[in-house]
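discrete fold record:
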Amino acid sequence: MKKVLIASDHAGFGGKEAIKKTLDEMGVNYEDLGTNSLDSVDYPDYAERVAKGVASGEAERGILVCGSGIGMEIAANKVPGARAALERRDRETRPTTQRREHRRRRRAHHAAGNH
């Protein structure tokens, strides 16, 4: 995996820090795009940073953490080329990631002229 971008608003700060520890343990290369405290911030700013990074190819994946997840998902999906999904548990995350990878491979297969 190339790199993961991670960000949160103030409500998700603690969760983001916990996820970073797990990423460190797994040896995953990531970049923390903020926030860096519990001070109140505007979540769309952080969602946009991660979404733009993933859409541009700077990173392969992004993780956004906030109080409910809904606002971050909506804000990230406003960035052209970004696709965000609200996921609350590991058993939800894995199938969504697998479906996306399957669709990506299928599109590449068809683009190569293999029908």
